[in-house]
Amino acid sequence: MTLKCKICGVSNSKILKFILDHKHPPQFIGFIVNYPKSRRYVEIEKLKLLIEIEKKKSEFVAVLVKPDNEILENIKDLKFDYYQIYDCTPEQIKFIKNKYKKKIISAITVETKSDIEKYKQFLPFSEIILFDSKGYEKSIGFDHNMLENITDNFNKMIAGNIQINDIFRYKNKKYIIDISGGLEDTNGEKNIYKIDKFLNELNKV
To answer: Which of 44, 63, 143, 144 would suit a FRET pair with 134, their CA atoms being 20 to 30 Å apart?
Structure first.
């Protein structure tokens, strides 16, 4: 079974086209929609042009941090399959799902083991639960071993400073790998060589 993955923080058309045309494209591609603190943030007008492309075998994910009504209205007609949402209550995310008819990735930010248990509140309306660090734009990691005893009866995505060489640790896990900083140069730009290596290596796992 090939591990599924999401490449997050894509912000230019050359990189996006390379990913979509790859012989082993990721299942998901993420775009930072409303979080200017991130160097991967894409302003709305640029975003509209960027994702006006044939998605082929990948699905597009809008990464949203506590989205307000304005940004949700601005992106509602864009080609997003999923909304990945941080810093909202279960009630708020359920409202967004019902109003905009999008599939949901609910992001749980993890610092201690007690944070992990929060996922149960989001399960009823989430297609995927993402376990991420509290680092957000800083690509900070957390101990993924804390997820060991969680049931496999729902779709789990993991993030938090994952590097290419880490993926072999997850070959027997039912995780969707969410990677961003591990595919970048020190200037924050996505590196085509690293993306190619990651997708090829993942396909072997």
So the answer is: 44
